[in-house]
User: What shape does this take?
Amino acid sequence: MPLTDQTVPQVVLGLETSCDETAASVVRLDRDGAVTVLSSVVGSQIAAHAPFGGVVPEIAARAHVESIDAIARQALSEAGLGFEGLTGIAATAGPGLVGGVMVGLAFGKAVALARGLPLVAVNHLEGHAVSARLGADIPYPFLLLLVSGGHCQLLVVAGVGQCRRLGSTIDDAAGEAFDKIAKTLGLPYPGGPALEALAAGGDAARYPLPRMLLGRKDCDFSFSGLKTAAARIAEGLSDADERRDLAAAVQTAIAGQLAERSDRAMAAYAVAQEGRGLRFVVAGGVAANQAVRTKLAATAQARGFSFTAPPLAYCTDNAAMIALAGAERLALGISDSLDAPARPRWPLDAQAASANPTHVPGRKGAKA
Ligand code: KG4
Ligand code: ZN
Assistant: This one.
């Protein structure tokens, strides 16, 4: 995406603290649109949360406080830069666990204030939306399947900050389904990668699972029926082969639903685009799953879409995607004030989220 604005190149320090990864990264965005990741450091808290089988918000917030300074310094040092080499700071401001979000955002504000740098308060989902652009040149607009632990949505990404939601989950996110089913199979947290490893070589046809929402005319998702069915089967399993085959069946069912709903969205998008510029992108933690990638790639190919998934390191949470989202905004002259709030809930398409609140069971409003 060539940029003509005077505000490039941008060299941005990104900070990500919305869940259980403390991450910092320096990314350069050049005038010709070329993106270079100068460093990307991810400090995982998996060991701290593993005994509890999931992320504990209080533990996460404390761990972010303890490590953000060292991780930001490491990102700068690996990039071979000091703060004076930066043109801006980008920090995740939500959605996510608010205690953690506040840590990264406050750190970013402090650096911005002390160094006189502009701040971008980045929507974490916008970070995922641009993450595939860290590895490939993908012009706007594109159709995006965002599949992570907290989100499962199909979006038309028309430009920086311009997202229109086509569909969303009516219960769990796909990553959440992976994690919960993995738990019933006795696998450690985080469940998605563990379930993928267990499923290798399994016979997915051994356990027929419900195909949720199949044939429905919208682009929504549902995983609760699959979760219940898988849990019921898991209870009666006795040997390793059975567990492997159930894992394979679950993975195939999730990949199948993601592909079926994406196929529907691609058909609608192709009409709206009059068959031109058909680009399909998948992003988020679940995009790291090979079965999911393979199934989506085949679906895109059959519909005449190009297919791009981020490099594996940028599927799960990282700060390079936050730095790039910030750099794209700064290149357009957009920044935020130092009183930008931390937002536990922050939908990418606010209009769709408030017009269709049945998609979000949360008490305090739309999550995504
Ligand atoms: O994007 P992410 O790091 O965090 C959120 O923003 O939610 O996504 C984490 C989710 C978890 O549910 C994790 O189990 C899932 O992505 N995940 C996977 C794989 N790697 C991560 N799910 C299936 N297969 C994988 N290989
Ligand atoms: Zn994420």
About this structure: The longest helix spans residues 240-272. Residues 19, 148-150, 175, 178-179, 190-193, 196, 284-286, 288-289, 316-317 surround KG4 (ligand 1) (CB under 6 Å). The CA atoms of residues 53 and 189 lie 5 Å apart. The longest strand covers residues 35-44.
